[in-house]
User: Fold this.
Amino acid sequence: MSEEIRRHHWIVRVTHWAAFFLVFVMIASGLQIYGAYARFGPRGNPPYPNLFNDTDFPEWARLGGWLAGGLNWHFFFMWPLIAVGVTYVGYLLVSGEWKKLVFRPSDVRPAVAMTRYYLRIDREHPPQGKHNALQKQAYTGVILLGALSVITGFAIWKPIQLSWLTALFGGYQLARYWHFWAVWLFVGFAVVHVLLVFTADPASLRGMITGRYRGRYTSDQA
Assistant:
């Protein structure tokens, strides 16, 4: 029988669920804003490559009702989301938890081994710490995505005051373009994350709610 362990600090759990809510508010309000000009690139020129060009997203997926409403929701909730992100990253740095989370060159080989396991090429689960190498890769990527979303968001929010930042991303329309695609990468991460929780390690959901974990990989993840 596996031993129950303390897995997630309360700061991690609170920021996780707060980010879950806030990200979807930002996505829904962002889609409302996008609807005002549903393409990328200077008007009158060919649009940038985008499968969603001129797409009218359904009303249930948008928040705000119209452009000004979407902007109000977006600008109001971006500050709590930034605060949550800073709190989480700050906790990782102060606690030393980042050492268990950040993907490093030494994780490349374990990532390949874990991929082989998930593809059913290898039957034995590779040894791991609190997070396996693929999880580290995904979590590191989503933190970087969060940083990209914030920086490009400021670039398109204040393109005059922060003209140097907007120029860094190739101008207003390209900054808007990168901001948009960061959102869809977030959505892809969230979908895969939820699917893996329920298919590979359902006990991790309880761990993120209560902080306690008793599951298949307990002994490896203390």
In short: Strands lie at 5-6, 212-213. Residues 67-95 form the longest helix (29 residues).
